[in-house]
Write a structure and sequence with these properties.
By secondary structure, this protein is an alpha/beta fold. It contains 13 helices and 8 strands. An 8-stranded mixed β-sheet has the order 3-2-1-4-5-6-7-8, with helices on both faces. The longest helix has 29 residues, at about 165-195. The two termini are about 40 Å apart.
Length: about 300
């Protein structure tokens, strides 16, 4: 298939590589000329001008995958809607608020095109392990882009359509909120091992043992093991832990439905407190985990 990928950051570039290698025709676009040049090196058709991206499709249906931060989606979407032809499919593959996604979908529909939301998980490991994708929006449009999803999910095959516009981002939002709670539990547990009743417990060794047959065996625990093995004292990590919105939105959605979420709320509050200087070994480990699975910066000032 032919598709334009807009936003060539850590995940966007991996998407380009994975799709090109499976024979898809990729038009790559980014505000950074160096990023589009890198995409070109991977075999994509690099274009820095939006109109040139549209023109590159000719009579072929335009499929546009936006892989950009949530704060920039409205601006980018409005700019693209000025020039994309009627009948196009626009995909928001980032972590947008599902409530905004539903409203944006109506805007796109009013312009004669279709919007899909594809919550995309996999971090910097998606290229190798396959992305996990949660789709919302028009089902015929979902079927149209399914060959792209099949490639991106390979080798795991992890993708599904969950309902109308916003449903994909909603499922991804809850996924990320769960992630907050899981990370916090691991970080607190290793903190207790580190500074608890027994001195000099080898945390990486404990993590390795837990990775074989224990109830907490997981990819996240294995990434934690790697971080502890590489830097047992977590030196050079200040303990600031960013939050990107999904847990906040999940808590708002839960309150609207009067659904208690004490574990996720507690983990969210730890991140907020870390941003005010309340840091410890556990928050340092949280930052190290985020770097391991998502390539996120470790310290606030970087």
């Amino acid at each position: 298939m032919k598709i334009a990928v807009v936003g060539l950051g850590k995940m966007g570039m991996q998407i380009v590589r994975k799709l090109v290698e499976d024979g898809h025709q990729i038009v790559a676009h980014d505000v950074s000329e160096s990023a589009t040049a890198e995409a070109g090196m991977h075999g994509a058709h690099q274009l820095n001008d939006k109109q040139a991206v549209v023109n590159a499709f000719g009579e072929t249906q335009l499929i546009l995958w936006l892989m950009i931060p949530a704060d920039f989606v409205d601006t980018a979407l409005n700019e693209w809607l000025e020039i994309v032809p009627s009948g196009s499919i626009i995909i928001d593959g980032g972590n947008s608020d599902f409530r905004l996604t539903a409203a944006r979908s109506k805007l796109v529909e009013a312009k004669g095109s279709t919007m899909l939301d594809v919550g995309t998980s996999g971090g910097v490991w998606g290229y190798k392990n396959g992305f996990s994708m949660m789709v919302g929006g028009n089902e015929p449009a979902f079927r149209t882009i399914e060959p792209i999803l099949i490639t991106m999910a390979s080798p795991s095959g992890a993708y599904a359509h969950f309902g109308p516009s916003g449903a994909g981002h909603y499922v991804k939002m809850v996924h990320n909120a769960i992630e907050y709670g899981m990370m916090e539990s691991l970080a607190e547990g290793y903190h207790l091992l580190k500074e608890g009743h027994y001195k000099d417990v080898d945390l990486a060794k404990a993590a390795e043992v837990w990775q074989h047959g224990s109830v907490v065996t997981s990819w996240l625990n294995d990434l934690t093991r790697q971080a502890l093995e590489e830097n047992p004292e977590l030196e050079g990590i200040d303990g600031f832990v960013a939050e990107s919105g999904e847990a906040r939105w999940s808590l708002e959605a839960a309150r609207a439905k009067q659904i208690p979420m004490p574990s996720i709320e507690a983990s969210f509050n730890v991140r907020l407190a870390s941003q005010k200087g309340q840091v410890n070994y556990a928050t340092k480990l949280l930052a190290a985990m985020r770097n391991k699975f998502g390539g996120h910066v470790i310290n606030k000032d970087i």
